[in-house]
């Protein structure tokens, strides 16, 4: 049956447009009761519903109670089309979760297209709101199921927290319960009560605490439009959990400081907020105080810490535009009796406030890492309210802590689904004969790979061949992952979602299944492999004569580590083709690097360590700084050259939809602290352009009286922290393509398709540009490409944070039973502390200057003098400046169970009451 509705619409030009909306109804839509999906199911005992029953949740229950619905005992659920449509419109993350439940056959969630069933559809009543219409459609569907189930001695239970909807359902003779009523009466699953999300009205009011009321969304939108309010994503400081900032939307985005509990006004890190600027006489500056929740959980920013004169733009949160709450990992605080039901939860992420939850499992949860979700943050509550989601394991257990850091950084680490695995070729796959006919055969070339020790996902190989006419052929050969991962398949969708492989200290989270990452696509030296090759003809001075790209078949002659390749280059007796090729590549790489630096490319630095782990326990037993050799630089130079060459090609062929990578130039304000630190030690640096900065940093390598030799490295480390994040983007939606750090006019990522989805996109564009593969609609859709790029930028950033957190975890494990004294350097001076870098361990930590080595506050304001411009702090007559060398004691501090950390205590210089 076809229902149609005609709407007459007047356009801006005054024309009358006739729109016909058609709605198809059918009488043969399966209700799921007789298709074998829900017939044989275990009886769920419930005091309120005595008969076997099916649940029909409404939209609000799905939106707010997913942790209950995901529990193993909740089965036999009818998901209505009306509910799914509304959830999809209101929350994409919840929609993905409910779709996953519906796809799980063990859960017995059945989707019923009620709006196309002739027995359950009803047109909108005149004057009826969308919400009222949806509620009515849900009740009609519940009645329909009740009627279908009568003959089977079963019933349909409508689960709704909407009081009006619940009352109408009961009036119409339906079984209707709130989710809390239903869960409280389930026999044998008391933990379900902890998973209930609390409504605001269920929370006790504490009138001694009062935050300003948030403005309504309509008021916020009007204020943003008029310029009265500013919109932006809140970023809480890592050094001070009561201080944050937003960068306003728009081309002239400016930074607004937000300081103190009341001005933050219940906004949580990464919420999108509306901010009202404070009067200029109330502007402040970042406090300069390190406020660490692990040391000072109840601390506040006092008025004496705020600078009222010559401050930066400062504001207050007046409304929440979009909450960015997610499940948080952490622990229950062991305050009060475990018999109590109300407890405080401390998140692992220091920038998230403590959360109040109700749980009856406190005895078993103390000492466990658990996951908690925020439900609301009422005006009259000091803390947000939340509910328990699940337990992860014991605090301090390495597997548990690894799980925490993966969850906290939103790293997808579940096993690949069967749908993804079904896309893989058989494990004994070999190159089909037809591929040799359409590819160039490079199997006789002296091709080799050079990678870190233990690398199994080898993306790239190199070769060098003297052509005998004064030129050489140089090739970069990259794994042809796109041969196995076709667009739109489950494996392609999964790789696009994951975005990147994540490398932790003791394991790797692959972007693609291991059969591809470590076998069929990995360019190992054990057989033929498919590759995508970039071939240059070069003169001895590294000038490029020609560039071409092709699909190929290669056979690596050797898979070497950087150290092995360096030994072969240095062994003067070795004359084999691979070694001769490495020498030629190394010589060209040095010329290429010199030319890049002359153009303004930066050589920055960051402290990196490598852990040696026990082969059985995987615990760290030793660590050392990563050693960089000429071969590291050699590989890097040719990968950069390949990326630049490919970027030019795909941008020429697809100017509107090329996937490129740019590195924005940092605003000069980013360099203020860095330049001031150098100036305090008599070093004048220039950061006007990348070349000026590179030249300035090179000058610091020259010996200077009174300046230790390590200062150049420290300056390069600090310069790295002034940089902006490099990002992927679609060429048709940006005008600035430049890569600031590399001083390159155009750049992309082509060389690591096993571990980066951006490279897969680039491979497809390059293959289409040389006629080696076909284009497809998503490949040429600017909006779609930009959306994928946004996800890749997020995933890349989270992967970096997860990798740093893994290093931090393994450093803690390494020092768990050790106490050592080690030299370090002051890299930042704060109002109450200095931050120290220990190069030997790649470790950075805080030494507080306002308390003794046991953490007791012993230093008063008169004993502590901080001069920001000179980057120095004087404590009881002893002065410490940025870049000073100090000696610290390093130990593992487990006194705070939640935030176990590396503790640094000052040994030298000797400060009375501070140094140990």
From TrEMBL:
<keyword id="KW-0539">Nucleus</keyword>
<dbReference type="Pfam" id="PF17849">
    <property type="entry name" value="OB_Dis3"/>
</dbReference>
<dbReference type="InterPro" id="IPR022966">
    <property type="entry name" value="RNase_II/R_CS"/>
</dbReference>
<comment type="similarity">
    <text>Belongs to the RNR ribonuclease family.</text>
</comment>
<keyword id="KW-0698">rRNA processing</keyword>
<dbReference type="GO" id="GO:0000177">
    <property type="term" value="C:cytoplasmic exosome (RNase complex)"/>
</dbReference>
<dbReference type="Pfam" id="PF13638">
    <property type="entry name" value="PIN_4"/>
</dbReference>
<protein>
    <recommendedName>
        <fullName>Protein DIS3 homolog</fullName>
    </recommendedName>
</protein>
<keyword id="KW-0271">Exosome</keyword>
<dbReference type="InterPro" id="IPR033771">
    <property type="entry name" value="Rrp44_CSD1"/>
</dbReference>
<dbReference type="InterPro" id="IPR050180">
    <property type="entry name" value="RNR_Ribonuclease"/>
</dbReference>
<dbReference type="GO" id="GO:0016075">
    <property type="term" value="P:rRNA catabolic process"/>
</dbReference>
<dbReference type="GO" id="GO:0003723">
    <property type="term" value="F:RNA binding"/>
</dbReference>
<dbReference type="Pfam" id="PF17215">
    <property type="entry name" value="Rrp44_S1"/>
</dbReference>
<keyword id="KW-0378">Hydrolase</keyword>
<dbReference type="InterPro" id="IPR029060">
    <property type="entry name" value="PIN-like_dom_sf"/>
</dbReference>
<feature type="domain" description="PIN">
    <location>
        <begin position="53"/>
        <end position="167"/>
    </location>
</feature>
<dbReference type="GO" id="GO:0071031">
    <property type="term" value="P:nuclear mRNA surveillance of mRNA 3'-end processing"/>
</dbReference>
<dbReference type="GO" id="GO:0019899">
    <property type="term" value="F:enzyme binding"/>
</dbReference>
<dbReference type="InterPro" id="IPR033770">
    <property type="entry name" value="RRP44_S1"/>
</dbReference>
<dbReference type="Pfam" id="PF17216">
    <property type="entry name" value="Rrp44_CSD1"/>
</dbReference>
<dbReference type="InterPro" id="IPR012340">
    <property type="entry name" value="NA-bd_OB-fold"/>
</dbReference>
<dbReference type="GO" id="GO:0000176">
    <property type="term" value="C:nuclear exosome (RNase complex)"/>
</dbReference>
<dbReference type="InterPro" id="IPR041505">
    <property type="entry name" value="Dis3_CSD2"/>
</dbReference>
<keyword id="KW-0540">Nuclease</keyword>
<dbReference type="InterPro" id="IPR002716">
    <property type="entry name" value="PIN_dom"/>
</dbReference>
<keyword id="KW-0269">Exonuclease</keyword>
<dbReference type="InterPro" id="IPR001900">
    <property type="entry name" value="RNase_II/R"/>
</dbReference>
<feature type="domain" description="RNB">
    <location>
        <begin position="439"/>
        <end position="772"/>
    </location>
</feature>
<dbReference type="GO" id="GO:0000175">
    <property type="term" value="F:3'-5'-RNA exonuclease activity"/>
</dbReference>
<keyword id="KW-0694">RNA-binding</keyword>
<dbReference type="Pfam" id="PF00773">
    <property type="entry name" value="RNB"/>
</dbReference>
<dbReference type="GO" id="GO:0006364">
    <property type="term" value="P:rRNA processing"/>
</dbReference>
<keyword id="KW-0963">Cytoplasm</keyword>
<dbReference type="GO" id="GO:0004519">
    <property type="term" value="F:endonuclease activity"/>
</dbReference>
